[in-house]
Specification:
The chain is 14% helix and 26% strand. A hairpin with a 6-residue loop joins strand 3 and strand 4 (64-67). The protein has a domain at 37-99 and 120-154: Sandwich (Immunoglobulin-like), CATH 2.60.40. It has 156 residues and is α+β, with helices and mostly antiparallel strands. It has 1 helix and 9 strands. The chain has one helix at residues 2-23; strands at residues 37-43, 46-47, 52-57, 64-67, 73-75, 88-95, 139-143, 148-149, 152-154.
Amino acid sequence: MLTGMRSLLCFGVGILSVALAIGCQPTQKKLAATEKVNGSVKLQGEPVEGATVSFQPVGNGTPAVGTTDAQGQYSLTTFLTSDGAVAGSYTVAISKMEKSAVADSGSGDNYVPPDQNKVPADPKNLLPPKYANATSSGLTATVVAGSNTHDFALTK
């Protein structure tokens, strides 16, 4: 009888352990469905390389961002690389920041350490400043189910 009770107790503890293990698994948050979004950015008709294209949702939502290649082409990312954007209305910001100068790292003879007392300058936007703010850029986009193409022709 003692052996039967022990077996029943071990069985019960085993079932309880499995139930707790299943119940304590972290729940995966379901990501919102995204739609493919790509397009181009041109300034005065010329492709803009290295621009950041930012889709800001109108109201609540998740923003999406992309970077242009040498041909001015971009594809948006919301959760996973190039997954697109959640369907909805967006205001759009586009900027291209100047790359900071890198100190010469040739031979050790040419190295000049940075001045610790000098405040670094803010990076310069190489595109007209009005496009850098989604609320004042005048650029908008609507993402719908399926594939979306949004081209932006910027002017000076």
